[in-house]
Amino acid sequence: SELIRGFLLSGMPCPSSCPPGLLALMAPGLALMATFSLPSQAGDRRALPVEKPPGVKGRTLILLDVNTKSPVRIISENFLSLQLDPSIIHDGWLDFLSSRRLVTLARGLAPAFLRFAGKRTDFLQFHNVKNPAKSRGGPGPDYYLKNYEDDIVRSDIALDKQKGCKIAQHPDIMLELQREKAAQMHLVLLKEQFSNTYSNLTLTARSLDKLYNFADCSGLHLIFALNALRRNPNNSWNSSNALSLLKYSASKKYNISWELGNEPNNYRTLMGRSVNGSQLGKDYTQLRSLLQLIRTYSRAHLYGPNIGRPRKNVIAFLEGFMKVAGGTVDAVTWQHYYIDGRVAKVTDFLKTRLLDTLSDQIRKIQKVVNTYTPGKKIWLEGVGMTSAGGMNNLSDSYAAGFLWLNTLGLLASQGIDVVVRHSFLDHGHNHLVDQNFNPLPDYWLSLLYKRLIGPKVLAIHVAGLQRKPRPGRVIRDKLRIYAHCTSYHNHNYVRGSITLYIINLHRSRKKIKLAGTLRDKIVHQYLLQPYGKDGLHSKSVQLNGQPLAMVDDGTLPELKPRPLRAGRTLVIPPLTMSFYVVKNVNALACRYR
Question: Cross-referenced PANTHER family, in alphabetical order (predicted)?
């Protein structure tokens, strides 16, 4: 039986010297291998016909191999990118972007884009003034507020004296007063969001300086979304305020890419009149002409239209836009939120049907884009696990990671070039970093992804048995496996190594045997599990049994792997996410950039 098992795992044909009895014994096993070979992750997800041969015990056997000859997709080095919402102007957090701790956390996710956009994009006005009068609204007695505002001014003066990257160390009392202010503003922001009625925001020159300083210090490339709701009487875009912002940015030699508007298919509910796709396409053409008149931005990148979920009317909007401005933008963008944050439950994050809703959207967007501009890059911008600001102890918990990691794997395997996570720091609960500047589970998941995953996507091949197969369900539905070349930036691994990342939604552990080119190779395990008594609701995580936390404000912890001996079966615990670096595969697809 051991001989048979060895031949099955290796895929080698039985030599001619095999006795006839051995060949007869091997026949059912070879038939099983053929019956349960599944297509690559990027292919058809429908269940294959399953017949349980007589004499085979009910157990789970999963064999995994990867095509190492050539990648099926190559995505951007900035694939996992970040977003900041303009609400940080309203609640005051923009003044704290110079925090050493925040910059350290953002640097961990570089290289990446930093998109400054959100619902309030189209209510943002730029004022070229350095020191506007401080608002006296906010929490606490007047003398506390005055001290807080004076601290902000003193911090600004200290930053101005610094050269290069400007970093601040804010006193604890200053942060405490800011959290009180933000808590009150959070209620105002939520009220605006639920009523869909937003107040105007002012972005000053100093605020723009702080935003750009944060991006530049963190190694992030800033993408700024301009207000598209400033309209002329004929409904064309009024570019006067945008021109003022562009001229100021150019005078500072800021390296910025641009967008126009946010979710423009919903403008009717915001302003009482709509902007159709064709009109927005003309507005983008106008913006491109404006950029070409400014030397600093004559070759700047332009992205859009950042539509919402591709329903029928939104698809019509995108078609109108692509007809007019498909050649004007450098990438076509849309956004997606999985669940309404007001009604979400932890079990929602474990539903395979929910995880797969994104696939249909990708196909719809790709169909339109390839009709008008074949080969144009597509980005998913503003992706969040839940809408409506998220839900405390849910969209910021370990459970939300299942959706986030599957989103990364699914988008990469289907050729989406960039995914922008909403948000790095926010007033809601969809963020990666909380208001104490502590990283949440999705931050650590993103950090592991950045450290281990390279831009080359590889096809996987799986063969397996399921104990009780059900119609329309194969084992891969709840065991999701993706493969990439290991990141070239990770100097712990030589080129040619491969990284697997695995989501186990089963409530039992699963065993995976590496086969083919991956067989008998040393593997490094990075197993991410919730830490503490809260389980899936936990806001803390452990890596290979060790809790993750920042060493200090300027230092992220070392992400230590657990080495597994060559040939060892991978044991995937229930309801977990994990990464496995298969060392020294010398994969042809991964040797060169």
Answer: HEPARANASE, INACTIVE HEPARANASE-2
Give the separation between CA 531 and CA 529, rounded to whole angstroms: 6
For residue 270, give both structure tokens. Answer: 């915001």
Rounded Cα distance, 80 and 292, in Å: 29
Minimum mean pLDDT range among 15-24, 240-249, 452-461, 553-562: 15-24
CB 56: neighbour CB atoms within 10 A?
12
Which of helix, strand or coil describes residue 484? strand
Angle separating helix axes 2-10 and 20-35, nearest 10 degrees: 40
Both tokens assigned to 360: 């249909």
CA angle 380-359-580, nearest 5°? 80
Instruction: Report how far residue 285's alpha carbon sits from residue 324's, in angstroms, rounded to the nearest whole number.
Output: 8
Q: Quick one: CA torsion of 397, 403, 409, 414, rounded to 10 degrees?
A: -150
Superfamily for the 77-129+155-457 domain: Glycosidases (3.20.20.80)
For CA atoms 338, 340, 342, 345, the dihedral sign is: negative
Closest CA to 284 of 315, 241, 239, 339: 239
Task: Please give the backbone phi and psi of residue 116, each rounded to the nearest 5 degrees, phi first.
Answer: -100, 95
Note the pLDDT tens digit of each residue in 155-168: 888 887 888 899 98
* The token pair that represents 540 in the structure block: 């803390």
**Domain locations along the chain:** 77-129+155-457
CA distance 109 to 78: 9
Rounded to a whole number of angstroms, the distance between the first and last alpha carbons of the chain is: 43
> pTM value?
0.86
Of the candidates 365, 312, 316, 313, the one whose C-alpha atom is nearest the C-alpha of residue 336 is 365
Sheet holding 37-38, edge to edge: 37-38, 460-464, 62-66, 510-514, 570-572
* Angle (nearest 5°) at CA 56 between 55 and 57: 115
- Amino acid in the structure at residue 386: T
pLDDT in tens, 317-350: 999 999 999 999 999 999 998 876 555 688 888 8
Cβ within 8 Å of residue 26, ≥6 positions away: 4, 7, 8, 14, 18
Q: Residues 366, 370, 372, 374: is their CA dihedral positive or negative?
A: positive
Name 477's Cβ contacts closer than 8 Å, sequence gap at least 6: 45, 352
- Rounded CA-CA distance 260/226 in Å is 5
Is 185 in contact with 92 (CB distance < 8 Å)?
yes
For 532, residues 6+ apart whose C-beta sits below 8 A from its C-beta are 538, 540
**Token pair of 376, please?**
């144009």
Whether residue 485 contacts residue 590, with contact meaning beta carbons closer than 8 Å, is answered with yes
Q: How far is CA 522 from the centre of its chain?
A: 29
Q: What is the percent of the chain where pLDDT is above 90?
A: 65
* H runs (alpha helix) in 380-479: 400-413, 441-452
